[in-house]
Design goal:
The chain has 337 residues and is of the alpha/beta class. The protein contains 15 helices and 8 strands. It has one domain: Rossmann fold (3-Layer(aba) Sandwich). It has helices at 25-30, 50-55, 74-80, 94-104, 109-123, 145-151, 164-173, 175-192, 201-205, 209-231, 241-246, 248-258, 265-272, 275-278, 294-325, and strands at residues 6-12, 17-22, 46-49, 63-68, 87-91, 132-136, 157-161, 236-240. Strand 1 (6-12) and strand 2 (17-22) form a beta hairpin. The chain starts with 5 loop residues before the first strand and ends in a 12-residue tail after the last helix.
């Protein structure tokens, strides 16, 4: 219970127990996400009743968050905060996903609030001498952002997103799987009650795949604006992926200040020159060690634009019109840079 190497991986609502897995730091580094798909030996868990978890008092560190709207280099940024002796970046812990699934199945609000609080405590156990834990939840967890930030008054958060054109290019690049994914996201936002209005079910079915992607993007964008309003711009900052890639040292410097990490110039340079910025974040989907940086990303998106540019341009224009009709600002303020 006191060792962060034993990840609180899942919450079993039927048995009111947390499932722990052995996930040392080197395994975190090898996994794209700390999910069943990417972790080894996920069947080798140990279940601990929540009553026993409640009795434990593990050492914890300050936690901060990277909330994101997908396809915006959030995994790269979480990897960057794997800095021994300073911080650890947790990439999409499934125990938080479980909270969304449980809520959709009608979880008791008071009990779930307790479980979320315990989950955050377990996730905030530091590795070794680390001074902070940076959690990057899956984007499906964004509806929990306000609740989690209120439960941790000292926590800070970055809201990271891709500009709409870049987001649409990423979806088009994934071809059929990207188009299926955006429809799945829309179903989730409808279930969670934060999809933007203005469309009947029939009208949603009439939309193209990229229009569906844009509806999901706008819904996340509107939610981000609400998070800033509810929590405050002193604790919550925004950043787009283009700015992040173009100004990586400045981004890490600003986040070091926001998260209270006090990185010096040499440490920031080590981060920017390290594997998070020089190899692809989806380590098990590409050749290990393959270089990935802003230039490579730009080249990828140019290829997509050649094949899908006309459709992307039309949908981007349509998205801006929808945003204007519903009072959704593309610039939601509280910029990190």
């Amino acid at each position: 219970m006191s060792d962060a190497r034993y990840l609180a991986h899942r919450y079993d609502e039927a048995n009111d127990a947390f499932r722990f897995l052995s996930v040392p730091r080197d395994v975190h580094r090898q996994c794209t996400f700390i999910t069943d798909e990417h972790l080894p030996d996920v069947d080798q868990f140990q279940a601990v009743p929540r009553s026993e978890v409640a009795q434990a008092s593990p050492t914890t560190a300050p936690i901060h968050f990277i909330f994101h709207s997908a396809y915006c280099c959030s995994t790269m940024l979480a990897r960057a905060f794997d800095i021994e002796g300073v911080s650890m970046g947790l990439k999409e812990p499934v125990v938080l996903n479980d909270m969304i699934g449980w809520r959709r199945r009608g979880a008791d609000a008071n009990r779930q609030r307790e479980v979320i609080e315990q989950s955050l405590t377990l996730l905030s156990r530091p590795f070794g001498e680390d001074r902070a834990v940076i959690i990057k939840p899956s984007n499906i967890c964004n509806p929990l952002a306000i609740e989690m930030l209120r439960s941790r008054p000292d926590a800070k958060a970055l809201l990271l997103y891709a500009p709409i054109e870049g987001f649409l290019k990423s979806i088009a690049k994934k071809e059929m799987w990207g188009r299926i994914w955006v429809r799945d996201v829309l179903i989730g936002t409808l279930k969670d009650g934060y999809a933007i209005g203005g469309f009947s079910n029939d009208e949603l079915l009439q939309l193209t795949d990229l229009q569906v992607a844009a509806i999901g993007w706008l819904s996340q964008h509107a939610l981000f604006a609400k998070i800033i309003k509810e929590i405050g711009p002193d604790r919550v900052k925004t950043l787009d992926s283009d700015t992040f890639l173009a100004q990586s040292p400045e981004t890490i410097t600003a986040l070091s200040r926001l998260y209270g990490l006090e990185l010096n110039e040499a440490e920031i340079d080590n981060v920017v020159q390290g594997p998070a910025f020089t190899s692809h974040s989806k380590l098990d989907q590409v050749k290990r060690g393959e270089v990935f940086d802003a230039k490579v990303r730009e080249q990828e998106q140019l290829k997509v634009a050649q094949a899908h540019g006309a459709e992307i341009e039309m949908v981007a224009t349509w998205t801006k019109a929808v945003a204007e009709s519903q009072g959704i600002e593309f610039s939601i303020g509280s910029r990190l840079l």
